[in-house]
Amino acid sequence: MTPARGDRPDVIANARLTGTDRTDPFGDEAVDVHLADGLVADLAPAGALPCNGLVLDADGGFVIPGLWDHHVHTVQWALSVQRVDLGGAGSAAEAAALMGAADPLADGRRVGSGFRDAFWPDAPELAVLDAATGEVPTYLINADVHSVWLNSAALRREGFEPDGVGLLREEPAFEISRRLNAVDTSVSDPLVAQMAQDAASRGVVGLVDLDMAWNEDAWVRRLAAGFDALRVSFGIYPEFLDRAIGEGLRTGDAARGAASDLVRVGPLKVITDGSLGTRTAACSHAYPGDPGNHGVLTVDIATLIELMSRATAAGIASAIHAIGDVANTHALDAFAATGAWGTVEHAQLVAHSDIPRFSRLGVGASVQPVHALDDRDLTDSVWASQTAQAYPLRALRDAGANILFGSDAPVSPLDPWAAMAAAVFRTRDGREPWQPGQRLDAATALGASTRGGSEEPARIGPGDIADLAVCERDPLAADEEQMRGMNVAATVLGGRLTHVA
């Protein structure tokens, strides 16, 4: 019998083990991984123990711990398949033309995403967008999601006065994204299920969902409808903190009323500054050509400490968005002041003196390695005068920080192999490696892509949860092309197959 998705194999046979800090005695030998009750029951040389029951033949493939994406905006990522891809737009005029040629969605709006205006030769202008798009409400979401360009029809629909540009930044932009994401669940939930299955095909067993919504109810609904592809830890935004505390939510608890324990309460998510692409990340040095612009701190330190103190007292972890060096300093100061636990999300520009503080404070660095390659040219220009370290992966690792990888999807695709390749090789498309001194070794990158991160990586041994993936190659020996194109033959979640190639 050939195992299929949904089956629970008793044995993964003819496999090889790989991963970080191995303590097993098998080396390169073929092994059989015996499973029972959702756990790894035993590891044995191939054929040494009877392979009873349902057998999944790994055919010499490598078994690794299941992978996690520690930063996903789930609904926004799922809806991206319906939206116009603006990643290749080389100018505002080209982006406007792409939107003008697109068919409206069922609700009568045109929505595009992924534009990067920092290097456009022309600035966004409302007249240009209106000329291309007419009276159809049209929305263009920046790749970093921190700004949105709207035509006049969309501005009117959303209650904004046209200002000649139509570009909204930070909280107004987030509000537009929230409204665009609030589609009927009959549309969004199947797309989330499709997204999850795609993730499982890459060896992903779990993600941290940081949608800007009250996420518990949505996940309980999806579980009731049969969602079973991933584990999910969902975030709580400040506007929902009172409700979460009042209703007794604690990080790590299972979602209330859920059909399974796959979904659990995650951290308080606080966005404390802007982004590099929108030139709003809070930095110690001004942006080029704009001496008054050091970015923005969207949450002052006193408010951040108050939020984190309340969350910590209620048993809720903290995930603090900080991109610029000033924002990272404030985030670490708040962790120190409150005794909170959790992560700094992004940590894209960090003062050299702050890098050791991650480990000292026990704060995880939840980073997105693909962003370093997406932003390398932008970093070398817009952040050229900054003295802090940009994308300090190796520096954080050498200082003992726990590194956790994610995608920030839809900012970059939900693909852990792209993240690992970016971290290990610091290049793509044949370019010279960017800041090669910040490369990570493959073992650290693999550990950072598991649930516990680089300092507490998931392992495979008797008694461990059977969250596993079977890969055609050893990730620790793969070159860049092989890592990016890694074929995952099977993914196992709690002993159950969520993907079989």
Oligomeric state as shown: single chain
Question: What's the average pLDDT?
Answer: 97
What percent of the residues sit in helical stretches (DSSP H or I)? 25-40%
Main β-sheet description: 8 strands, mixed
What is the count of DSSP helices, taking H or I runs of 4+ residues?
17
Any overview of this molecule?
- This protein is of the alpha/beta class and 501 residues long.
- Helix content is 30%, strand content 22%.
- The chain contains 17 helices and 23 strands.
- The strands form 4 sheets. Strands 1, 2, 3, 4, 5, 21, 22 and 23 form an 8-stranded mixed beta sheet that branches.
- It is globular and about 75 Å long.
- The relative contact order is 0.15.
Name its key features.
8-stranded mixed β-sheet, 23 strands, 17 helices
